[in-house]
Structures are given as structure tokens and as C-alpha cells.
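If you are new to this repository, start here. Below is one unmodified record pulled from the training split, so you can see the exact layout before writing a loader.
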Amino acid sequence: MNTIMSTDFNFPGQKSVYKGKVREVYTLENDILVMVATDRLSAFDVVMPKGIPYKGQILNQIATKMMEATKDIVPNWLMATPDPNVAVGKACEPFKVEMVIRGYMSGHAAREYKAGKRMLCGVPMPEGMKENDKFPKPIITPATKAEKGDHDEDISKEDILKRGIVSEEDYGVLEKYTRALFQRGTEIAAERGLILVDTKYEFGKTKDGEIVLIDEIHTPDSSRYFYADGYEERQAKGEAQKQLSKEFVRQWLISNGFQGLEGQTVPEMPDDYIESVSNRYIELYENITGEQFVKSDISNLRERIFSNVMAYLEK
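And here is the target side for that same chain:
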């Protein structure tokens, strides 16, 4: 299966390269960033050995469509998408916090609640809730950006300000933008018959001091979605919610004895399973965007990406 697992491009004026779990970011002169979404699949903070066909294209296209759909309320870093796997934008100094916002008690919040905790990142959670219930009002539960190899950690607003990670003035902007984006994301999801359960946003500051949205937004890697149809009935019966996220990959790994713990070996994903994951991501794309997914030509991915970016830069 033709996938792109890593890149080693050398663009004109290139200053540095940063390789994240999924994206590779090239910093060029004139404060330009070229962000390549690879087909790598990460779960439990571990990158799987095999790539997922079209995953990079899917994530990049959802993120760029959502940036376009929210730029009237929050400025973002994006300038162009010269290739299905590539976003080009303004270089920023990233804030060292991820702004996680939760409309429902799911995932990490539900696990903490089940363990008896009623505070998450300094935010109280009401008594008497059950998993996947809607919070009275969405809660912001920030996480510190992990250094390589570490998990992100919960942190309260008070600690962020006390430790000087973000200034009070800037944090006020991050909170305002986070709530506005989540509200818009909730509205977009509702139009598609979905519920935006929780998500995370990352922000940076440009050389001019403007705070902008960076990285990805409202993708299945950064967000959890439920199907709206039947949500109330499933909650009333205490049944699991039908969800759109990469949770199905985590469940497969768990059933094959892997949770990212020390000493565990990543199980081999057979080709037919990888194809099913690719099809699931395509289904996610079509549900989230309401548009049919158009597969790009992947016969020579590296060459295609490099020539498309070069053609853009030469312009």
C-alpha cells in the first residue's frame, strides 16, 4: 500500500524541520511554514509501524476546511494548501498549552470522574453525572504540551498563570477563542447529524503579536464526535454511544494486548485491517465535512508533494 511515512525534503530557504507524531513541519525564510501531513497513525502516544492510505490527506483536508469555516471568528495561520497533504502558513511561536474543551463527560474526564474526582484542571464537575452526559456548560481543561516521549499533563488555569506559561491577558484571548471555535464546531457538527463531544485547539503568536489558531482543528485525531441520532435513547439505556473518532483503533490495540505500556509490543496490523482503517477514515471525512472524499493520486506521493510545494513557492 502506497503511504507516506516520512519526508526528507529540502525546500529553498529551509531553516529547520520538526517531526511530530503525524506532521512534519518545515520552517523556511520569511516566516513561512510548510506542514506535511503523513499517513502515520499514532495511538497511546506511539506511532504504529505501518501507515494508513489517505490518512494524511483526510486530516489535512478536514483541518483546512474547518480553518476556512472559522476564520471569520478566529484568525489562523493558514495561507494555502498547494497539495492534498500540505498546508502552508505563517510561522508562529506556539503557546505551550493545549486548550482542551469538553461539552460532554467522555474519555479522560469520564475516567477521572469514575475514579471519584470531581475537579478536572481546577474546574468542578457536577455530582450525579454518568459517562457521556452533557455538561451544563462546556468546560476548558488545558494540558501542557509534552516534551518528546512524555504524555500531555492536565494543568489548571491558575497554575498556567502562576508558572508564567501564558500571560493573563493572552490566556483570556485563548479562552475566548476556544469557546467561540467550539460553539462554531458544535453548529457545523449538528448540521451533519453529529455531536462535537470534545476537542483540543492549539494557538501561536505571530511576529506581529497576533494570536492565531495553528495545527489541526475538528479532525477525528483531535476531536470526539457522537452520532446525534439515538444519543438520548442510548444515554437513557446506559448504552455506549456511537462515535466518530480513532477510538476504534485504540480498542483493536487493547484487544490485541497493547495500551502503550512499558514492555508491550505493538501488534502487527494485517493489510486487510489497515484497509478497513483507511475506509473508516474516509467515512469520518465524509460524515464530518458532508462532502464525498476524492482520493488523490498516490502512485508517487513524495514526488507529487515536493513538486506541488515547489510550484507554490516559486509563485
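Two things worth knowing about this chain: The helical segments are 55-70, 107-114, 157-162, 168-191, 231-237, 247-255, 271-289, 301-314. The radius of gyration is 20 Å.
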